[in-house]
Amino acid sequence: LSIIAAPHSSPLRWASASGGSAREGRMAGAPFWRRVLDSVLSIGSYPGEPETQAGGRRVLVAALVVGTLLNIPTVIGDFNAGYTLVAAANLVLVAVTPIFLEALRRRPHRLAWIINGIFVLVLAVQLLETTVYGGLLESGLVVVFGLAFTLGALVAISLKAATWWFVVFAASVVYAVVI
Fold it and tell me: Which of 39, 56, 109, 150: disulfide with 165, CB 3.0–4.6 Å?
């Protein structure tokens, strides 16, 4: 009788008792937007993942998706303004992000490698943009967004990785000032 759900039991208990996963039970009656959000935030999850790592991964995946979506109007604006090289580089970022997310979904234990790969690509585009525009102020302080790499590495990878990304951030600021 434990398989049959009592009228007062939660969908979570019923899904577990009926052989389905607890997540399926939670998601059965959820609105469409919630199901989409949960599926995006679960990219890179794996059984037994520590909760702190899962939280950091979810934050980083959400930031990556939102950042990519917000980058699309920038690409259009750069093309319209005649900055074809910068627009093309940003378009590459938009196009490559789903590939990185798929890699994270398929190889969740490679989180640090995949995140560092994304950060290197974004850093290269930021440095190209700084060079094309002509320096720190002329580029709109674009290299300052490199500080997000430090924070992202701190949240999702480790303190050691965050320290290295901070050194890279400082070097990129020095480069932007010097050119």
Answer: 150
